User: Which sequence fits this backbone?
């Protein structure tokens, strides 16, 4: 799959088909995770794959009762073995170690999308409970739980601010209306076209114009 298609297809899915994901497919996803960049190439991640129904149920409960998670046939918990990095980079290493796990998680989600699978990043959980369920050592932190399975949902578009609104040039807050910047200009145009279509549909524009004519 093209990278762009893959990025666009990755959405958070909370409805899964009752269908196992073969181990060799999960293996490809985990391999993609291990290819993520990391500070000093220290690879401070460990991945815990959970398929056991009882364990999944306990985890979903520890994720503030997000029961929808149980539909997914597998969970991947990305764990942060922080000490590997902090011993090298001190306090700054704490940030690096979380960032490393986040990139690995993104690789998991993108590779899953590439293979026709769906995921959802779950960050809301009781860390101590997850550690207990999975027997994670004291000095290792579960960073996120990723649900993995086949989607039952129709793909939806991302609900995002246009990139032109979240990008500054040269300094904080400085925007540009430079049209030649690709794909920024095109994305913004698409956004404004959608908005103006919606406005037309609702006849709002005509109402505004007639108001000004008076
Ligand atoms: C750090 C982080 C924590 C998240 N925690 C949860 C969560 O606990 N439960 C959940 O349903 N979704 C969670 N999500 C998924 C987001 O809600 C989702 O990514 C966001 O709404 C954008 O939608 P999209 O992923 O479909 O583009 C989390 C995402 C991130 C990055």
Assistant:
């Amino acid at each position: 799959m093209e990278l762009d298609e893959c990025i666009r297809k990755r959405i958070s899915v909370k409805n899964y088909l009752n269908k196992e994901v073969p181990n060799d497919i999960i293996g490809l996803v985990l391999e993609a995770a291990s290819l993520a960049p990391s500070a000093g190439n220290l690879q401070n991640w460990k991945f815990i794959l959970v398929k056991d129904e009882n364990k999944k149920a306990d985890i979903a409960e520890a994720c503030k009762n997000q029961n929808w998670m149980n539909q997914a046939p597998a969970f991947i918990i990305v764990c942060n073995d922080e000490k590997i990095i902090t011993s090298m980079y001190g306090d700054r290493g704490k940030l690096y170690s979380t960032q490393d796990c986040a990139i690995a998680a993104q690789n998991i989600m993108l590779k899953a999308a590439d293979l026709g699978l769906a995921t959802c990043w779950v960050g809301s959980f009781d860390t101590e409970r997850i550690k207990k369920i999975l027997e994670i050592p004291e000095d290792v932190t579960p960073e996120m739980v990723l649900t993995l399975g086949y989607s039952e949902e129709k793909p939806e578009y991302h609900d995002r601010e246009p990139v032109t609104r979240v990008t500054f040039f040269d300094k904080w807050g400085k925007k540009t209306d430079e049209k030649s910047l690709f794909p920024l200009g095109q994305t913004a145009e698409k956004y404004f076209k959608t908005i103006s279509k919606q406005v037309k549909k609702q006849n709002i524009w005509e109402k505004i114009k007639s108001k000004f004519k008076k």
Observations:
- The chain has nine helices and four strands.
